[in-house]
Amino acid sequence: LMLSVGLAGKGDQGMQNPGGLGDRPVSFHFLESMLPKAVKRRVHALKRLQVQCANIEAKFYEEVHELERKYAALYQPLFDKRRDIVTGAVEPTDEECEWHSDREEEEELAEEVKEKATIEDAKKEEATPEEDPKGIPEFWLTIFKSVDMLSDMLQEHDEPILKHLKDIQVKFSEPGEPMSFTLEFHFEPNGYFNNAVLTKVYKMKSEPDSSDPFSFEGPEIIDCEGCQIDWHKGKDVTVKTIKKKQKHKGRGTVRTVTKQVPNDSFFNFFNPVKGLLGWDSAVKLDEDSEFTLATDFEIGHFFRERIVPRAVLYFTGEALEDDESFEEEELEEGDEEVILCSLTNTPFDQKCQKAVC
């Protein structure tokens, strides 16, 4: 870590510059080496206390995880009712449908517009049979298409499949098990694959890294594991078939070879990059793979913390308005642009993987 230290005037609250180093970046290790031996010894004692604080904080987050499990059980009946309404398995009562919008005045149409709309509707009813769609059609697909983080992964050939998605659930690891959470994507029977549920497990760690205990800021997602999709023949959208012509060097004859290559699809989400991000692993990741895995972790966290708990607000767009309510400030000339993590509003880099910020 580097700390930029400037000369401190009499009224300044900054650290006094040791050795008249001007504005040169000075490492913490160098600053520590400049301390008197007796003071350095006491600083070491404070560091030991800080490590103990980090260990207590890790236990705190373990209890938070248990609390999440407890309240997940209280939320689940409400989420089950949401699923039943979305799929049309249950029709809500008039009382359950009562809702008074804060925007009623803005949404009210002038009387003449209402009358015109009524006349137009009557004409349509005469022309076509009355249709009563089941549940809330394309509920989850609409959310996927509305949220930038998800729409970036979505391909046109994914959309017919996601029309069959009826629910997304979050399940937390049981007591005594390693900390993790699982995203469950529940599908109705469809013509694309046999799985009723597709799963993605995110493994977490809530303890200070022995090599860098002061970096601990809460549980981290360290790995993820997808599932095998049992595709119907010819329906796998994660691969595409290409034909290549090959010419024989000796005879000069040409043959056509057919082979399958990877294809962009949301369903690649269930076949993540292998390797532990930020931890020692037998699988060494290149820079692109690290970025892909870090992005995967952010998406998993976003499903858990935002999409699943507030699905209806992403369907209506109200949650999107909340997300976009922070106006970007124009950078002054010479300022460096900083990309902020959408979850934490803190600088995001390729190795950002915090699950709790």
Structure description:
Residues 111-133 have a biased composition (Basic and acidic residues). The protein has 357 residues and is α+β, with helices and mostly antiparallel strands. It has a domain at 2-9 and 24-94 and 138-230 and 269-323: 2-Layer Sandwich (Arylsulfatase, C-terminal domain). It has ten helices and eight strands. It has helices spanning 28-33, 37-87, 104-107, 111-127, 139-146, 148-151, 159-162, 287-307, 311-316, 318-323, and strands spanning 2-4, 25-27, 165-172, 180-187, 197-205, 220-225, 239-247, 254-262. Strand 7 and strand 8 form a beta hairpin. It is extended, with a radius of gyration of 28 Å. The two termini are 20 Å apart.
The major sheet is characterized as: 4 strands, antiparallel
What's the helix-strand series?
Answer: EEHHHHHHHEEEEEEHHH
**What's the CATH superfamily of the domain at 2-9 and 24-94 and 138-230 and 269-323, by name?**
Nucleosome assembly protein
Mean pLDDT comes to 78
CATH topology assignment of the domain at 2-9 and 24-94 and 138-230 and 269-323: Arylsulfatase, C-terminal domain
CATH class (first level) name of the domain at 2-9 and 24-94 and 138-230 and 269-323: Alpha Beta
Share of residues in strands = 15-25%
Please identify the structural class as seen in this structure.
alpha+beta
